[in-house]
Amino acid sequence: MRFRNLFDAIVMGAIATSTSCRVSSIREDGFQLLRCPSKRVLLEGLRPAVPVDGIELRAVDPRTGASTLLETVGRPCASAQDVDACRKALSETKLPPNRWRIGTTDCAMTGCMNVLVVSRGDVRTVIDGRGALVEFLGPIDTPEEAVLLAQTYDYQIGCATDGNSGVRASADGGFDVLATIDQGCGHVERHLVHFARDGGRLTFVDGEVRSRATSDCSMGRRPAGLARVPDVRFGDPVGAWLASAARLEAASVMAFHVLERELTLHAAPPALVRAAARAAEDEVRHARVTRRLALRFGSRPARARVAKRSPRALREIAIENAIEGCVRETFGALVATWQSRAAADVEIAQAMRRIAVDETRHASLGWRVARWANPMLDPDERSAVARAKRDAIDELRAEIDRDPPEAVVALAGVPCARDARRMFDALHAEVWEP
Question: pTM higher than 0.85 for the full model?
Answer without folding.
Answer: no
